Amino acid sequence: MLSVDEVLRDRYRILRQLGQGGMGAVYEAHDNVFDTSVALKEIVVDLSNSNTTNAQEMVHAAFEREAKLLAKINHETFPHVKDYFSDDNRQFLVMELVDGEDMANMLKVRQSPFPVSDILEWTDQLLDGLDYLHNQTPPIIHRDLKPQNLKINSRGKIKLLDFGIAKGTDSSASNTITDQTFIAATLNYSPIEQMLRVIDPTFLAVITHKYNAQVEPILQQGADVRSDIYALGATLYNLLT
User: Fold this and answer.
1) φ, ψ for residue 107 (rounded to 5)?
2) What range does the domain containing 199 cover?
3) pLDDT value at residue 181
4) What are the pLDDT digits (tens) for 43-61?
5) Among residues 74, 164, 158, which one has the least CA distance to residue 121?
6) Interval 173-194 mean pLDDT
7) Which CATH number covers residue 82?
């Protein structure tokens, strides 16, 4: 965990922690070069169970590849990636800071569903953003669409956050280390084939014991563009009910 006033790369001074997830934390930081606030996402990779001697180099290379991919994204639905760097087993993404509350907190405060008219407008914006991602070469999969990663900015536009786990689907660029370390999923929002890689084996046995051999290849194929559509559907259901 980073400390308040800690400075990274002689440039980014930590102001406060904005959130905490399974792969790391997100902070508000001050960019001393451009004198502005940014969101700094820390991604901690656990290599303690890896037997690969060059695992750290492989993780750094995979992270740099994904960061460069994300930096090319130019769509109003997504915060712009401004910078990236690595420090030992920690990877950092520097992104546009998005104001406002996330939709999970907004829903908790409301204690009632959002108006259908608002959700239809947000859905249109999200579908346009996902269409943009999925039509990149290679397609980019967000892999963690949920209310906690959605914000409405001061202009009333929806923003999809947390690109720390987004991934291009070019299979030639994958390897065992990154497949094991840059995955994430959220119960109630991620499809079962994505959940397979992160949930407790005992629980996994409970929810998959009725699946037959014909379903097995689907469960093992991992996330693709359909995973984001599934997560969007689950998110909309949550916002509507």
Assistant:
1) -65, -35
2) 103-240
3) 46
4) 877 666 665 657 777 878 8
5) 158
6) 61
7) 3.30.200.20
- Does the annotation count 144 as an active-site position? yes
Task: Tell whether omega for the bond before 138 is within 30 degrees of 0, i.e. cis.
Answer: yes
- β-sheet bridge partners, residue 26: 19, 41
Asked if residue 1 is part of any domain, the answer here is: no
State the pLDDT at residue 170.
Answer: 54
Half-sphere exposure (Cβ direction) of 101: Cα atoms closer than 13 Å: 8
Joined together, the tokens standing for residue 19 give 């959130």
What is the pLDDT of the chain when averaged over all its residues?
A: 83
Q: What is the radius of gyration, based on Cα positions, of the chain?
A: 18
pLDDT, residue 175, reads: 43
- Does 172 have pLDDT greater than 60? no
Find out whether 98 and 206 touch, Cβ atoms under 8 Å.
no
Name residues whose C-beta falls within 8 Å of residue 146's C-beta, 6 or more positions apart in sequence.
104, 186, 189, 231, 234, 235
Strand, helix or coil for residue 233 = helix
User: 50, 75, 96 — which closes off a domain?
Assistant: 96
Which of the residues 102, 144, 162, 228 is marked catalytic? 144
For residue 155, pLDDT over 90 is answered with: no
